[in-house]
Amino acid sequence: MAEHETLLVRKDDGVAWVSLNRPEVRNAINQKMQAELAELWTAFRYDDEVRCVVLTGEGHSFCTGIDRGEAVSEENTDAIAAGDYPGYPTPWMYDDPGRDVGPKSRDLWKPVIAAVQGMACGGAFYMLGQTEFIIASDDATFFDPHVTYGMTAAFEPIEMLSKMPLPEVMRMSLLGAHERMSAERAREIGLVTEVVPRDDLLERAAWVARVIADSPPLVIQGTMRALWTAHEMPRTQGVAMANLFTRIGSDAAAFKAGQDRFASGQRVEWQLR
Hints:
Elements: E1 7-12, E2 15-20, H1 31-45, E3 52-57, H2 68-71, H3 74-81, E4 112-116, E5 119-121, H4 124-128, E6 133-137, E7 141-143, H5 155-160, H6 166-175, E8 181-182, H7 183-189, E9 194-196, H8 201-213, H9 217-231, H10 235-248, H11 252-264
Parallel strand pairs: 2-3, 3-4, 4-6, 5-7, 6-9
Antiparallel strand pairs: 1-2, 7-8
């Protein structure tokens, strides 16, 4: 695995662990991190050793968005306020700085589980909105400060519409930095699937990732594709696509092994959540 300047990456028996590694700035996303995440998601797409990914952050916070110290200079701020986009002939050619940091933006169709601690705000939603689900520590908070600092909140909250009801996304976006959502409230509305003590966060994520990584990859990826596709369609169209995904995502050997296990009376050890 190549060395990274802004990420810590390791692979452990089918599970790739990715940790945002700029704790001195609460893992704010600079241009180097953007490039490294985009490159990493693409690499994982073609790496058969990676069957599941856990995404987390070093230090006290998961991620506090785009690094404003790098992205918003006084010159750029004045130009944008005047309706210009420095470096782009027209606003229509502007590339959003977070467009490539989410796994789906790089066509990675392997499960990515987020393990979130501390603050997760603004540009962190580029990643969180494209994960399969989120496990949070009990000290996690979620908010979007854009409007508080004079910026329209658009790209990031749109990503979060895959995780939260519209009124909750709207409230978070419109209240900006004035309100933070607790981990428990995030669980209540479905943004996170589970809240655990801070010290248990990575252990819990490891258990979930291990179960997924031990399942047949074709079946896991077929299930993901079916659910993400249906989520973005009216229900009737999603159901109409289900047979296609079932056929494409079938693994004859895995199917036979699963049926033989069931017929034998063997059952898995399960946990209650």
